[in-house]
Amino acid sequence: MKFRFTPLGAALGLAAGLFMSGGALAADTIKIAVAGPFTGALTQYGTMVKEGVDTAIEQINAAGGVLGKQLEAVSVDDGCEPKQGPVVANRVVNDKIHYVVGHVCSGATIAATDIYNNEGVVMVTPSATSPAVTDGKNYDMIFRTIGRDDQQGPAAAKFIIEKIKPSQVAILHDKQSYGQGIASSVRSELEKAGIKVVMFEGINAGDSDYSAVITKLKSAGADFIYYGGYHPEMGLLLRQGAEQGLTAKLMGPEGVGNPDINAIAGAAVEGLLVTLPADFTQDPSNAAIVKAFTDKKRDPGGAFQLTAYSATTAIAEGIKGAGEDDPVKVAEWLHANKVATPIGEVSWNEQGDLNEFKFDIFNWHKDGSKSVYQ
After folding, report:
1. What's the CATH code, domain 150-270?
2. Could you say which of 3.90.1640.10, 3.40.50.2300, 3.30.300.30, 3.90.1300.10 is the CATH number of the domain covering 9-146+282-358?
3. What does the alpha-carbon distance between residue 299 and residue 317 come to, in Å, rounded to a whole number?
């Protein structure tokens, strides 16, 4: 395994917002960077991951830490922007942090992975689902604790085909790696099943008025709409669609499963269909972990809290298994072993993707709750 040092990180790193959890960094700690959006429109996803990492670290440290050392979280803000991915990655490298939970969004993750792999940093993303994170890369140091879009997309399509049984489907996406990728996966599966996709179109993330695309949706005559992207745009599509008399039901991936969507969509969010990681909080074996979250007034039931907890667990177990704080040996150990986590016993294929992961379909409700589709 060959690694390259990237000296521009010292300069680039200053552009990334960095704040620390638990006080000043100390030599007797093992640092884990938490890379994700802590500013911008998608900060809640960063919060979900941070809560998962913090809770795992608190539990691990209370049990004696790892190899006699305490774990310490260092949060680094990429704003969910691809251009900030390398900035954050270089900051992590130059701060001599060996482990990363993140990045959160696929675009930023894809932009950062080359640096981590080349510099010998273990990165475990609990949320980046785009196949492009790992496909064809021959990475040794990159892992996930979440399924891929080509697992999530077929799960959504299977549900649409078998449960919704629409005659015509419209598919929208946000023109970004994650959103367009999963939308394309859903389209492919629907077309294989003979379901007509009457519209496949990108919208501009960050716009405030989607009236034109809603008019096109109504004209296309679709009786079901799938959207690949994040909650701010989905919330507006729901609200503005309801205002304009759009009656087709909408569905989206885990990126729309954010409580903040309720404030945007209002009552129109009721009945939104969302693919999310299975609700691991309902597993009786996770009762103590769920209590650890709730004792700190954290929500364990979001999209990424328990996948982030599991990513942290994997890193800790990898260090224990390797017998030393050596990220290259930790990566080798993870590739060769299974790890017990709140999302189940996980193992990885050669390129760092999970061998198995379960997505379920949920109904989203106007009170902010969700329920498994029955």
Report:
1. 3.40.50.2300
2. 3.40.50.2300
3. 24
